[in-house]
Amino acid sequence: MTTNNVTNTPELTANGQLIIGSSGVNPVAATLTAGTNISITNGAGTITIAATGLAGIGWVNVTSGSQALVADTGYVADFGTLVTFTLPATAAFGTFIYIQGFGAGGWTIAQNSGQQIFVGNHSTTLGATGTLSSTNQYDSITLLCVTANTNWTALGGPQSAGLTIV
After folding, report:
1. Are both 85 and 17 inside the same structural domain?
2. Are 67 and 144 part of one and the same domain?
3. Global confidence as pTM
4. CA separation (Å) from 66 to 17, 69, 166?
5. Could you read off the pLDDT of 93-102 as tens digits, one per residue?
6. Nearest CA to 87 among 140, 136, 132?
7. Cβ atoms of 117 and 141 closer than 8 Å
């Protein structure tokens, strides 16, 4: 049995380099390569790996009457009565929110001051009095933030006759 120890490592030439081994040859200094929906940020003594885009979406099963929304998250409205979702007060341009109806109560999206949702050629009332609601138990919608913190547009719509827009 042969044992090779990494005892005389050369000075690394870039932030984020690692010693990477391969069967039968000496290890080398290299950096990681980001794949689809992954970002890698190298720093002095650090490597940060993060999910980006759709692969980074986590889903929340909502089994109560209210839920604060978080950008780049999906939600299933799984409650016997209405689930009221509230848009996040801060959201970056290009972030998504997904809502899928499942429970018998349906869902509604409440807004904060200065916020508005656009669905086709319709829009909710600007501000905290505006809402967007399902009309069918299984309605779903995908919202895209098109103006940071304030304006959202619908990318996907309901499967029933329509949404209730106030």
Report:
1. no
2. yes
3. 0.67
4. 45, 10, 19
5. 999 999 999 9
6. 132
7. no
